[in-house]
Amino acid sequence: MSYEDDLETAAREELERACTLGWRELSKLTPWGDNFEGFTPEGREVTFERSYLWETDAGGDIRVEVTVYEPRDYEEGVTLTRSIRNETVNGQKEQP
After folding, report:
1. What's the number of domains the chain is made of?
2. Confidence band (pLDDT; 50, 70, 90) for 88?
3. Measuring CA to CA, which residue among 95, 11, 2, 76 is closest to residue 48?
4. CATH number, domain at 10?
5. Which domain holds residue 59?
C-alpha cells in the first residue's frame, strides 16, 4: 500500500468513527476538536485530528473533518470531510 493510500485508509476509518453519533448528539459538542496519536493500517505512527464545525450557521449542518499526518509532516497529510445534515422531523429542523 502506498504512503498516500495508507493515510487515506486511516482517515476514512476515523471519519466513519467520527460520524457514529447523530446530529442531535453532535450538536451539543459543536464546535469541538481533538487530536491523538495512533497508527495507520500499515503501522505508521501518525497524528489524527478530528473537528466538528458548523457548516454555515450554528444549528445547521455539522462539518466533520479528519486529518491524518505523520507528526513531522503535516502538509503531506490527508484531510477528509463529511457533512451531517440537520434533517427535518415532521417538517421541523432538530434543535441543539
Report:
1. 1
2. very low
3. 11
4. 3.30.1300
5. 3-93
